[in-house]
Design goal:
mainly alpha, 58% helix
């Protein structure tokens, strides 16, 4: 039976790579604790990190000041593409 005939299971399978991309970008920008809290890392088959940050363990980053949470959110939204940028713009206009 083709994947399209499975309905919601087929949709989830087709979107699995995008979901993995979203989670890996969030991990990259330091939102590992959020991914663990909502259980996405386990569901998408991503490995666990010891430090919970988006950086590779043992990798040194030369920065004067670490980016704030809001800067990390902006960078993640930009990396994920136009739909997420628009979501960020809408969220930024709400009280």
């Amino acid at each position: 039976m083709p994947i399209r005939g499975l309905g919601f299971i087929g949709r989830r399978y087709r979107h699995l790579n995008r979901y993995r991309q979203i989670v890996s970008v969030m991990l990259k920008h330091g939102f590992g604790d959020l991914m663990v809290t909502i259980g996405l890392r386990r569901r998408l088959g991503l490995g666990k990190r010891k430090d919970g940050s988006g950086q590779a363990v043992g990798k040194q980053v030369d920065r004067v000041a670490p980016p704030t949470r809001w800067e990390r959110i902006r960078m993640a939204m930009e990396e994920l593409g136009p739909s997420f940028v628009k979501l960020g713009q809408v969220a930024g206009t709400r009280p």
